[in-house]
Write a structure and sequence with these properties.
By secondary structure, this protein is mostly helical. It has 6 helices and no strands. It is globular, with a radius of gyration of 13 Å.
Length: about 90
């Protein structure tokens, strides 16, 4: 039996997809390593399953702070996915 995914899980999945797209574009470049670390952070959020547990993992940081402000600034294509997840976390 499959479990119904929460809105936060779906938004985290979309964020992971956006990060994976960036990572795929960067393969072979030095920056790909930092993008892979950001993708790992996003997977950690997804594993928490509920908005409440995700917020605990964030430890009062914004999602941008959690992922890394420098990385987010240099990957603007992920901003809409970040905003969508934050909306789910703080709805």
């Amino acid at each position: 039996m499959t479990k119904k995914r929460t809105g936060a899980q779906m938004a985290a999945g979309k964020l992971i997809s956006a990060i994976q797209k960036e990572w795929g574009n960067e393969l072979g470049d030095a920056i790909a390593q930092s993008t892979e670390k950001v993708m790992d952070l996003a997977h950690e959020l997804l594993q928490e399953r509920t908005p409440e547990r995700m917020r605990i993992l964030l430890k009062n940081r914004t999602l941008t702070e959690y992922l890394g402000e420098h990385w987010v600034k240099h990957h603007p294509s992920t901003e809409s996915a970040i905003a969508a997840l934050e909306k789910e976390l703080y709805a």
